[in-house]
Amino acid sequence: MDTIHITGGQPLVGEVRISGSKNGALPLLAASLLIEGETVIENVPDIQDIHTMIETLRSLGAKCTYSAPGTLHVDATHISSFAPPYHLVRRMRGSFYVAGPLLSRFREAEVPLPGGCAIGPRPVDFHISGFKQLGAEVQERHGVMHARASRLRGTDIFLDGRLRSVGATINIMLAAVLAEGTTVIENASREPEVVSCENFLRSCGADITGVGTSRLVIKGVPRLHPSSVRAIPDRMETGTFLVAGLVTRGDITVTDIRADHMDIVVRELVRAGAHIDRTEDTLRVRMRMRPNPIEISTGPYPGFPTDLQPNMAVVAAVATGTSVIEETIFDSRFTYADELTRMGADIQVKEHVAIVRGVERLSGAPVVAMDLRAGSALALAGLAAEGRTSISGAEVLDRGYETFTAKLSSLGAIVTREHHGTEAGVATC
Ligand code: UD1
Questions:
Q1: Are the beta carbons of 334 and 327 closer than 8 angstroms?
Q2: Is residue 219 within 8 Å of 245, Cβ to Cβ?
C-alpha cells in the first residue's frame, strides 16, 4: 500500500507534458497479436496497465521489447498459447482485448472473464455476442470464455445504442478484420481511442470504412502486415491536469496533446469560469476565482467522458453554487463522494445523480483511493484543500498516470509518496 501526502493550497503553475493514452495504447498492443512480424508502437505510457498487457502478450508467446523509452516492439509471429492466465486478466479488464485477435487469427481463444469492478458491474456480454454472431462457438465454463470457430464469417452486428461500448467495438472489430466477408458494426463507439485502433488496423492492410463514425464496415482480409503507430495523447491525463490548474487557481499548460479530443471538457471548464488558450497540441488553463457551478451528464464520445466525471466533482465541490453531475455509463461511479465529504465537500448522491453544493474551501484529510479515477479526484481535492491530505491505496494511480507525483511537483505541488511495502490488492477495472 502506498500513500500520497499532499499539502494543498498552492496554485499550480507551469508546463506539463501529457503521456500516451492508456486506453489508446492497450488496443494497439492487443491488435499486434493479429500480425506476423514486428509492430512498433511509440508514445507507450510507462504505467501499470501497460505492464499488465505486456505480461499478457508475453504469456501468449509474443516478444515485447523496448528500443527506447516509450517505443515498444511487439513480435507476435510465434504464438504458443491462446489462454492468458487469470491473474493477469483479473488485474485489468483491458486484457480481455486479446480475445478478438486470438479468435480472428487462430480461431481459438480461452480468456478468463474479467469479473466485477469498483465502479460497478462491467459485463462482456456484448463482446461475446459479437463473437457468436461472427460464427464462433462460445462457452463459459469455470469463469473462462472458451471461443472456437472453424471459420469466422462477416455479418451485421448491432451494439447497444445507449451504452455504445468502447471495449465491444474494439474487440469485435479485432475479431472481424480477418473474417471472411463483410462485417458491419452499427452503434460503434466513436471514442478517439477506437478511431486510433481503426487507423492502425488500416495501416496494416485491414479494409475498414466508416472510421470515426458509428457505422463500421469491415471487409475481411486474409492477413495483415506489420506497421508502426503512435499512441494518441491521454485525454484523461490532459483533463486531470486542466482541472488541477482550475481548482488550485493556477496557470497550467498541457503539451503534446490533441486539443480536438478535448472539446467538451474545455467547454465545461470555460463554463466553470476558466480562461483557456488553445493551440492544436497545447491547452493553457488559467483561473483566479472560485468556479461557477457546473451541470454535466456523462456520455459516449463526443459526450462528456465518464473517466473525468470524478475530477469534475472536485470543481463542483469548491464552486460558488449548486452543481448537478449525472453519470449515465457506470452504476457505481460516485464511490469518491464519501471520501470528498470527509474533506468538507457537500455531496448528495441519488442513484445516478450527484448534487454538489460548493463550499469555500475543502480541508485536508486522510482518504482512500477506491479506483484509478476516484484516486485522481482525491489528489485534485487535496491540491485544492487547506492542509494535508493523505491518500492511501494510491498505487491505483500507477495504473493510468505516468509519474503523477513528479509531474505535480514540477508544477509546484507539495507532494510526497510513502511506500508501505505490503503488496496491494489490485482493483479490476
Ligand atoms: C472503456 C475504458 C474506460 C471508460 C469506458 C467508457 C478502456 C480500457 N477502458 O471501458 O476507461 O470508462 O470505456 O468510456 O478503454 N457494457 C455491457 N456489456 C458489455 C460491454 C459493456 O453492458 O459487453 C456496458 C458497461 O457495463 C458500461 C457501458 O456498457 O455500462 C460502457 O462500457 P464500455 O464502453 O464497454 O467500457 P469499457 O470498454 O470496459
A1: yes
A2: no
**39, three cell numbers:** 509492430
H-run or E-run covering 349: strand 346-350
Show Cβ contacts of residue 269 under 8 Å, excluding neighbours closer than 6 positions.
242, 243, 246, 276, 285, 315
> What confidence tens digit (pLDDT) does each residue in 10-42 have?
999 999 999 999 999 999 999 999 999 999 999
Distance 171 CA to ligand 1 centre (A): 12
Residues within 6 Å of ligand 1 by CB: 23, 26, 93-94, 122-127, 163, 165-168, 193, 306-307, 329-330
Which amino acid belongs to residue 104?
S
Cα distance between residue 273 and residue 277, in whole Å: 13
Task: Measure the CA–CA gap between 336 and 354, rounded to whole angstroms.
Answer: 11
Number of H helices, E strands in the chain: 13, 23
Query: Checking DSSP bridges between strand 251-255 and strand 13-17, what pairing results, if any?
Result: parallel
- Pick from 253, 326, 249: which is nearest to 289 by CA? 249
Domains and CATH numbers, the chain: 3-19+233-423 (3.65.10.10), 22-230 (3.65.10.10)
SS3 85: coil
Look at the pTM and tell me if it is higher than 0.90: yes
Taken in order 166, 167, 170, 173, the sign of the CA dihedral is negative
Nearest-atom index, ligand 1, CA of 92: 8
Buried b (16+ CB within 10 A) or exposed e, 374-395: bbbbbbbbbbbbeeebbbbbbb
- Give residue-wise pLDDT tens across range 330-381: 988 999 999 999 999 999 999 999 999 999 999 999 999 999 999 999 999 9
d(CA 429, CA 173): 21
What amino acid occupies position 128?
A: I
Phi–psi pair at 56, nearest 5 degrees: -65, -45
Q: Are 224 and 34 in contact (CB under 8 A)?
A: yes
Q: Which atom of ligand 1 is nearest to the CA of 193?
A: 15
Distance CA 126, CA 123 (A): 8
Q: Cis before residue 121, ω within 30 degrees of 0? A: no
Partners of 5 in the beta sheet? Answer: 390, 416
Instruction: Kindly report the number of other CB atoms within 10 A of residue 222's CB atom.
Output: 7
Under a CB-based contact definition with an 8 Å cutoff, are residues 379 and 6 in contact?
yes
Pocket test residue of 163, 189, 197 for ligand 1, highest count of atoms within 8 A of CB:
163
What is d(CA 278, CA 283) in angstroms, rounded to the nearest whole number? 5
